[in-house]
Amino acid sequence: MAATIQTIEDLRGPAGRLEALLNVGRTDSPYAALVCHPHPPSGGTMHTKVVYQAMKALNHFGVPVLRFNFRGTGLSEGAHSNGPGEIEDVRAALDYLDHTFKLPILLAGFSFGANIGFRAGCGDPRIAGLIGLGMPVEAGGRKYTYEFMQGCTAPKLFLTGAEDPFAPRALMEEVFANAPGEKTMQWIEGAEHFFMGVPGSPAPKLDRMQLALREWLSQHYFPLIPTA
């Protein structure tokens, strides 16, 4: 399938227009997807490498994938609100996908975007699956909690770098243990928060992250489509 990217001009959240891109999928795709980017004041945008690789993994299966910049990021209107407003931005993006495709939605997020995406998507009947990449517990003095997941029964994937300083293994495994429903936890060895390498294993691990995501998607949603 030839990749086609569309600039979305009519995605609006409560703070105004949200800059967005849609990677077009197959007309017979059974799902649509949304990928949320990391912490805006720390430089996160919809073009962050992990977000881009997650989009590629989803689009590999012919899924139309929407990426957008949170309020105050890039050309998106408004100002960063440290969480509450960004949750509303995700809900606006979900509404856009639902209105446009009327398909179940796979919701992915990286770092801050994972926490915010899960907060917006948990309990939403339109969500067919949740993907947390580099799900943070504490980063830059910001603490992230997950008590809201108690009522979240959609299938969940947690993909984390084994050397991620923002998600110590013991704390992340506690988050995973307390998450209800069908769930998968996978550690990418030799990877830090951005799935780049670490001393002793310096090569980037983005390809391993994408492969793990594609294998999970193939197992749960696209069993007849090869991952290679």
Overview of the structural elements:
By secondary structure, this protein is of the alpha/beta class. It has one domain (5-220): 3-Layer(aba) Sandwich (Rossmann fold), CATH 3.40.50. Helices cover 28% and strands 22% of the residues. The chain is built from five helices and twelve strands. An eight-stranded mixed sheet has the order 1-4-6-5-7-8-11-12, sandwiched between helices. A two-stranded antiparallel ribbon has the order 2-3. Strands 9-10 form a two-stranded antiparallel ribbon. Strand 2 (12-13) and strand 3 form a beta hairpin. Helix 1 (49-59) packs parallel to helix 5 and helix 2 (84-101) packs across helix 3. It is globular and about 45 Å long. The mean pLDDT is 96.
Which descriptors apply to this entry?
12 strands, Rossmann fold, two-stranded antiparallel sheet, 28% helix, 22% strand
What is the topology?
Layout: E1 5-8, E2 12-13, E3 16-17, E4 20-23, E5 32-36, H1 49-59, E6 65-68, H2 84-101, E7 105-110, H3 112-121, E8 127-133, E9 138-139, E10 142-143, E11 156-161, H4 169-178, E12 183-188, H5 206-220
Parallel strand pairs: 5-6, 5-7, 7-8, 8-11, 11-12
Antiparallel strand pairs: 1-4, 2-3, 4-6, 9-10
Helix pairs in contact: 1-5, 2-3
